[in-house]
Amino acid sequence: MREILERQREEELEYIREHPDYFAERYCWIEDKDTGRAIPFRLWEKQRQALREIHEHKFNVILKARQMGITWMVLAYALYTMMTGEGRTVAALSRTEVEAKELARRMGVLIRHMPEYFGQSAQGEPFFESRLWTMGAKIGRKGREPSRFQTFTSAPGSSRSFTANLLIFDEWAYQQHAEEIWVSGLPVINRPTGGKVIGLSTMAPGSFFEKIWKSNREFHHIFLPWDSDPRRDGAWYERTKWLLGERVYGEYPASPEEAMQAARGAFFGEFRRHIHVMKPFVIPKDWRRYHTIDYGLDMLASYWVAFDNEDNAYVYREVYEANLTIPEAAERMKEAEAGEEIYTRYAPPDIFGRSQESGRARSDIFADYGMSFEKSDNNRTAGWANLQDWLRIQEDGEGRKTAKLRIFSCCENLIRTLAAIPRDPKIPGDCAREPHELTHAPDALRYLFVLRPCGGGGMPDPETEGYYDQVEDMLEYGCR
User: What is the largest distance, in Å, between two alpha-carbon atoms of the chain?
Assistant: First the structure.
């Protein structure tokens, strides 16, 4: 009898290896928050599809609406990973120690409710032995190397000493030091013959998770919209929208684009990549050009903006670099604008104040190195209002959506930070000053638009007349 049971379990494990979705539904129990009881894990169709895709791909990033049961699904896959091989390690990172312990507790729920493999047999021995503790779990079969589940808090180097088969980032968008942890954590699983990553989260503006979702092609993207839960219908969504207002689009997005554009309190809510971002073109010589900066040792954010003869603005160049001295910053900007006629350069008022150490203003030192600036206005409310007005979406004469301010696609940091910078929760009409890295590029633009710049309105330069057909095509079709 014992041999028959052992053989049946082995055959079942062999089938499970190729069917993780079957394992989750057949053997896993999860907690029902409404009743407080453990219930069988019955996958929704989109959960089932997500689990299959995770199994097929090495690098997985999951963007989801709230309360999708995805953490339970990922933990079920972690247990599947440990049960279908010997000596396997799963490392899971959370924002805080409390959340790390919660992951370990949930793993305990899965293990304790799987009597087929962890319960006592008629001979008094379980098929798998298990040991649980506050930050992890260990399972294994007698005489074989055990597998281990270990949780960590999000601190640099947390999992550096581990070699793992599966690396999980829970609520990745909200983990501190996320990029640094990723750099140290990737070697943990980055073997040619194995290793897997699952990063899951709702969206947060300016996060490393957002960067991975938007630009890392090595990751397989999985999105679960608000209606992945079949119990959520249109009436449920309308009630939720009434309760949350505009924040519903960030908490319960219907598409990845909606999740990123909502970005929960993004200051420039009018910014839309498909409208405001366009392919570069050659700027006609008769267009008036401005140069505007935000400068500190932590970052030089330098932008060149051209105005056509109908007072439309185009941000056409970016220099965005940290840790530059004034001579180095001046040299970078001179190289970038070599040969151009700049109508006016603007800089923030703080660089015009005299330094206590040298007795000189930083603006004077910039001038010594060939970069002369006019003082801008630091009125934040007026500056942001003007910039938002330039970004406001409107229709052209043919009914196409456009805006008076467009940005060349080469200005990557401006595009990234305009979309990401949040509102200040305490000051109406102002953006938050943290994360500080998100402020440099928008501030540079503010120092120009607070002064209400305009085009020259002059006669076209004969040398540039040949450009206009090309320019019209670009403005008509935008960034394709």
Answer: 97
Q: What single letter denotes the amino acid at residue 1?
A: M
Q: Which of 67-71, 289-293, 451-455 shows the lowest per-residue confidence on average (mean pLDDT)?
A: 451-455
Tell me how far apart the alpha carbons of residues 267 and 422 are, in angstroms, rounded to a whole number. Answer: 5
- Domain extent listing, the chain: 2-224, 274-477
The CATH class that applies to domain 274-477 reads alpha beta
Cα dist. 437→135, 160, 273, 321, 432 in Å? Answer: 33, 27, 20, 11, 11
User: What is the distance between the alpha carbons of residues 179 and 419, in angstroms, rounded to a whole number?
Assistant: 19
Q: Which of 177, 9, 33 is nearest to 95 (CA)?
A: 177
Fold designation for 2-224: Rossmann fold (3.40.50)
The CA distance from 50 to 1, in Å, is: 39
Nearest alpha carbon to residue 166 among 128, 194, 134, 144:
194
Beta-bridged to residue 351, according to DSSP, are none
DSSP structural state of residue 385: H
Q: Which residues contact 461 (CB under 8 A, 6 or more apart)?
A: 284, 285, 286
2-224 and 274-477 in the same fold: no
With a CB cutoff of 8 Å and minimum separation 6, the contacts of 251 are 65, 66, 202, 244, 264
| Residue 462 confidence class, pLDDT cut points 50, 70, 90 | very low
Helices (H) and strands (E) in the chain, counts: 18, 19
